[in-house]
């Protein structure tokens, strides 16, 4: 039965008689027993519970009988009472225990309480007779209360082991027929004590002896142990354990006292010889498990308090030197640290610790103070070690500071990766947060002092202000670079170390992070960045001069790289790459000042690019390149020159991209006005574009010498194509030009890089197009239609030749504006007169749409607007036109006004020969006349849909004395007028309901008409000459 744990239930029960022990006469042997609890007993009454009590007795002598208190109305009483009995002979004596149900307040219980009044064996007989009589008396009346027997337990003393017993015993009846049930939990053990003349309950001397014995045995085991003391398991020999066991029995040392002695002995020995933290943790856990509230005396508590204090002080001292005692790169030491913190945390969380050390500081307060003190001590020691007496110079100071920062970085890494997880897991604290904040201020004070020694008060100036102060370039670039380079490198190393350390601030909590001095580290390096940029600029300029000077491109002594470049271009290009690497490594944290520096770098590199192009071209010019007419000797040198310049131009052009300036500008838009950011962007892009274009122009200038050298022959070959008789085949006419190009231009393909060969072909193409356009535009030359057809075919063959399936010039470069004009002119020349006149009116419609832009570009005034409506009545076959008004006409009279009227005519005349011109009435003295006049034109549907048909509106100023003045003209395409049936026009509303049309007035002189020029040459064509005459008259008005 009884599956419940007596320890678990008993822990919550407090009996007023816990300390009420029955002490017997002092003998050499004792038996100590504790009646803890009983459960599951049989009910003896009709009531819901009984009031049990126990009687502990030995058979003889009777004075050894003891009784517990009565527990009212329960079947599961808990006593937790202790009794002590002197034993004569453990071999023959037996422990007997009865349990009774108490009913009469003056019955067996009261009789048993008078046991101490019994004297001698006769008195004992009378005592038991009284008990028996009381039992019979109470049982003689039906229903009266009696002391009911509930069961008993018998235990032979000889069966109790030296370690004692602690278990449940089943209750026994007086006979087999007895209905007894239930169990009782008894803890009993044997002890032997020497009579020292002190109270038996006082074992203070035994406890101190037990601690001393433990320390002796620990020393003995450690002396025997061969390995590291921290590897010792803490296990004592069997003999030592036996001695300690017997001593504990003889000294009546309780379990909690034994655990206390063990913890004191091992912890003190740890202070001397450093035992395993794992062992100490195990002993600490045992101490916690055996602790019961107030189970230690004052002396014992004081002794344990002293041990706790000594141990914690030792542990805290170790934590102060955490970096030395528990190095992060040692796995075993990290495990020891973890165990140490676990012990400290365990102690601070134990009830016994708070009982013994009620005034101990909070654990987190203690550890915080320790981390701070240890960090400061370690930091000061590092500063002393690193800055120990050396050769005194600014460079040493900077290098020492960099070394110190790198030490801090290593420490931060160790804290984040190793220490911090342990502290957060065990003591719920951030080791890194505490230590880094302590280091931050002290470190930055040292950094600022070092920078002030080197750069002075400049470190406190903003980057923009620093860059405004232009420093004069050293006369000797090499001397300047050499003097500043070493210090600049030391500064850069210090900056990089701080930049790396600043990354670790993310592990500091957000509240404290904003107050860290390391966050603003870059603000002190503005002057340093200026120095770095100056050193970089001057080194590159010197490198360019040396590289160009070393290049040998004469004859067979060339040092050309890959036969298309010299070593100088490779060298300078690498310098540009190093600038990009420098910027990426710099990783300047502040966006706006980053843009300022980026602009400075871009400007410096632009100047370097210009210098290189000037020096390389200068070497070519020094050899009379521009003065010679024979380029055969210069082919290779010319190619190397333009290739090198293009290579540096490309390196420079991609520099801002390499520097990620676009990403930087996008990021800046989040924190600064877009207008400010756009200004920065414009400045960078303008610098790059201007320099790139300047260098490109230089390349074209050098290559143009090649084209100039062959230009005469090129034009001659083109002239033969243009003027070739029709009897000569097209292939025969064009082949000489292609052969010439293959011989004189295409050999450069082998020595020029693709980009430069493309430029050379562009120049050749430009000469061909210019010459061809010049020939076509010659007004004095009259050619046949077949001649223009051949030229069209020749132009197409030129495009195919120079494109060569996209191997050479791309078609978008070939089809320039001049090319498109030539194509248009050739088309016009091969077009009949009527079609050209139609095209003319189509051009006028397009010009009208762009009238405002054309007038502005031609410096012509705005001629005003004309408002009208137009509608075609299909059934009546009538075109209705309403002239509504004009607005903002130009003044033609001396009074600043005009007398306007509008002429309306359908054009071209050959499409509508039967239609006569009509006009409005004259409106006097106005620039904004209102006409509101309607005109009718009889047209068939077919005539309305003729291609090229327009309504021509001419606004004139009436003059009585002289000829009428031209105000402006406008055109309206007839096929798009409302009412004319076609897919895009379904409006059938009456004329008055239609929306008025606004037309811009134009002047024929505003745009040069190529069609008029071509028609003008056709002197034998009457239609052409008449059309040109009328248009020329209008232009001249």
Your description of this structure?
The chain is built from 34 helices and 16 strands. A hairpin with a 7-residue loop joins strand 14 and strand 15 (about 965-975). About 30% of the residues are buried. Among the domains are: about 5-100 and about 145-190, Immunoglobulin-like, CATH 2.60.40; about 205-320, no CATH class; about 705-830, Methane Monooxygenase Hydroxylase, Chain G, domain 1; about 835-1035, C2 domain (Immunoglobulin-like). The strands form four sheets. Strands 4-1-8-7 form a four-stranded antiparallel beta sheet, with no helix packed on it. The protein has a four-stranded antiparallel beta sheet with strand order 3-2-5-6. A four-stranded antiparallel beta sheet has the order 13-10-9-16, with no helix packed on it. Helices cover about 55% and strands about 10% of the residues. The model is unreliable at about 1-30, about 40-50, about 135-145, about 470-480 and about 555-560 (pLDDT under 50). The longest helix has about 50 residues, at about 675-720. Helix 4 crosses helix 6 and helix 26 (about 755-775) packs parallel to helix 29 (about 815-830). InterPro entries: C2_dom, C2_domain_sf, Munc13_1, Munc13_dom-2, UNC-13_domain. This is BAI1-associated protein 3.
């Amino acid at each position: 039965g009884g599956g419940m744990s007596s320890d678990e239930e008993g822990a919550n029960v407090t009996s007023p008689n816990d300390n009420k022990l029955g002490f017997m006469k002092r003998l050499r042997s004792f038996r100590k027993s504790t009646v803890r609890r009983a459960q599951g007993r049989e009910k003896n009454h009709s009531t819901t519970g009984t009031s049990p009590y126990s009687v502990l007795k030995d058979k003889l002598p009777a004075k050894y009988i003891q009784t517990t208190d009565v527990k009212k109305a329960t079947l599961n009483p808990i006593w937790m009472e202790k009794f002590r009995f002197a034993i004569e002979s453990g071999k023959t004596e037996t422990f007997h225990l009865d349990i009774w149900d108490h009913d009469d307040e003056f019955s067996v219980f009261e009789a048993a309480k008078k046991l101490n009044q019994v004297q001698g064996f006769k008195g004992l007989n009378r005592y038991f007779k009284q008990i028996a009589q009381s039992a019979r008396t109470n049982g003689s009346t039906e229903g009266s209360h009696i002391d009911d027997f509930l069961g008993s337990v018998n235990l032979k003393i000889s069966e109790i082991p030296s370690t004692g017993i602690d278990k449940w015993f089943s209750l026994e009846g007086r006979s087999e027929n007895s209905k007894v049930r239930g169990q009782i939990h008894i803890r009993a053990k044997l002890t032997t004590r020497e009579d020292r003349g002190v109270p038996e309950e006082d074992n203070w001397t035994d406890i101190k002896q037990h601690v001393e014995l433990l320390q002796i045995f620990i020393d003995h085991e450690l002396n025997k142990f061969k390995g590291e003391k921290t590897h010792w398991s803490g296990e004592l020999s069997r003999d030592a354990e036996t001695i300690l066991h017997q001593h504990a029995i003889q000294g009546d040392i309780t379990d909690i006292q034994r655990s206390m002695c063990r913890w004191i002995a091992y912890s003190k020995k740890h202070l001397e010889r450093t035992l395993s933290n794992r062992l100490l943790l195990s002993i600490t856990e045992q101490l916690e498990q055996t602790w019961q509230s107030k189970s230690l005396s004052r002396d014992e508590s004081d002794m344990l308090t002293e041990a706790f204090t000594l141990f914690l002080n030792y542990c805290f001292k170790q934590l102060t030197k955490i970096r030395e005692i528990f190095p992060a790169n040692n796995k075993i030491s990290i495990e020891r640290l973890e165990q140490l913190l676990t012990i400290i945390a365990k102690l601070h969380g134990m009830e016994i610790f708070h009982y013994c050390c009620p005034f101990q500081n909070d654990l987190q307060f203690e550890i915080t103070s320790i981390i701070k003190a240890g960090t400061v001590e370690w930091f000061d020691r590092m500063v002393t070690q690193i800055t120990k007496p050396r050769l005194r110079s600014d460079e040493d100071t900077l290098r020492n500071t960099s070394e110190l920062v790198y030490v801090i970085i290593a420490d931060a890494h160790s804290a984040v990766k190793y220490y911090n997880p342990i502290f957060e897991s065990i003591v719920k604290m951030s080791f890194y947060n505490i230590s880094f904040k302590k280091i931050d201020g002290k470190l930055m004070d040292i950094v600022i002092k070092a920078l002030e020694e080197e750069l002075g008060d400049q470190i406190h100036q903003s980057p923009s202000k620093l860059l405004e102060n232009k420093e004069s370039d050293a006369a000797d670039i090499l001397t300047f670079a050499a003097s500043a380079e070493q210090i600049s490198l030391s500064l850069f190393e210090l900056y990089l170390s701080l930049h790396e350390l600043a990354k670790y601030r993310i592990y500091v909590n957000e509240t404290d992070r904003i107050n860290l001095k390391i966050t603003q580290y870059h603000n002190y390096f503005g002057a340093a960045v200026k120095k770095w940029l100056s050193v970089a600029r001057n080194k590159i300029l010197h490198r360019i001069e040396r590289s160009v000077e070393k290049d040998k491109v004469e004859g067979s002594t060339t040092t050309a790289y890959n036969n298309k470049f010299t070593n100088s271009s490779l060298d300078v290009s690498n310098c540009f790459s190093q600038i990009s690497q420098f910027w990426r490594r710099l990783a300047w944290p502040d966006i706006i000042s980053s843009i300022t520096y980026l602009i400075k770098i871009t400007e410096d590199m632009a100047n370097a690019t210009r210098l290189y192009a000037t020096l390389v071209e200068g070497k070519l010019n020094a050899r009379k390149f521009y003065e010679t007419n024979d380029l055969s000797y210069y082919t290779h040198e010319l190619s190397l020159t333009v290739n090198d310049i293009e290579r540096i131009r490309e390196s420079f052009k991609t520099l801002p991209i390499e520097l990620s300036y676009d990403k930087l500008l996008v990021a800046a838009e989040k924190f600064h006005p877009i207008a400010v950011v756009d200004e920065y962007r414009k400045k960078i892009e303008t610098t790059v574009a201007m320099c790139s274009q300047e260098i490109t122009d230089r390349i074209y200038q050098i290559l143009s010498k090649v084209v100039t050298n062959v230009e005469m022959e090129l034009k001659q070959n083109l002239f033969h194509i243009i003027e070739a008789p029709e009897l000569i085949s097209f292939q025969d006419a064009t082949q000489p030009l292609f052969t010439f190009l293959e011989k004189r231009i295409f050999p450069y393909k082998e020595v020029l890089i693709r980009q430069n060969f493309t430029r050379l072909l562009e120049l050749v193409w430009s000469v061909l197009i210019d010459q061809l356009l010049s020939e076509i535009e010659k007004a004095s030359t009259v050619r046949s239609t077949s001649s223009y057809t051949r030229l069209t075919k020749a132009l197409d063959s030129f495009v195919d030749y120079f494109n060569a399936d996209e191997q050479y010039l791309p078609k978008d470069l070939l089809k320039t504006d001049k090319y498109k004009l030539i194509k248009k002119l050739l088309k016009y020349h091969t077009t009949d007169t009527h079609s050209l006149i139609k095209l003319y009116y189509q051009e006028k419609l397009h010009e009208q749409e762009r009238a405002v832009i054309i007038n502005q570009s031609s410096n012509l005034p705005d001629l005003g607007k004309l408002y009208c409506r137009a509608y075609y009545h299909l059934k009546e076959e009538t075109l209705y036109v309403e002239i509504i008004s004009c607005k903002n006409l130009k003044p033609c009279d001396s009074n600043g006004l005009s007398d306007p009227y509008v002429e309306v005519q359908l054009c071209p005349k050959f499409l509508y020969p039967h239609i006569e011109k009509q006009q409005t009435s004259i409106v006097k003295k106005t620039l904004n006349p209102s006409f509101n006049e309607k005109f009718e034109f009889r047209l068939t549907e077919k005539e309305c849909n003729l291609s090229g048909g327009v309504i021509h509106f001419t606004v004139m100023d009436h003059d009585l004395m002289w000829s009428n003045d031209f105000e402006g003209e406008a055109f309206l395409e007839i096929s798009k007028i409302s009412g004319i049936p076609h897919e895009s026009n379904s409006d059938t509303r009456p004329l008055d309901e239609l929306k008025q049309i606004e037309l811009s007035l134009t002047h024929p002189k505003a745009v040069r008409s190529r069609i008029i020029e071509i028609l003008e040459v056709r002197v034998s064509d009457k239609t052409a000459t008449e059309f040109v005459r009328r248009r020329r008259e209008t232009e001249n008005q």
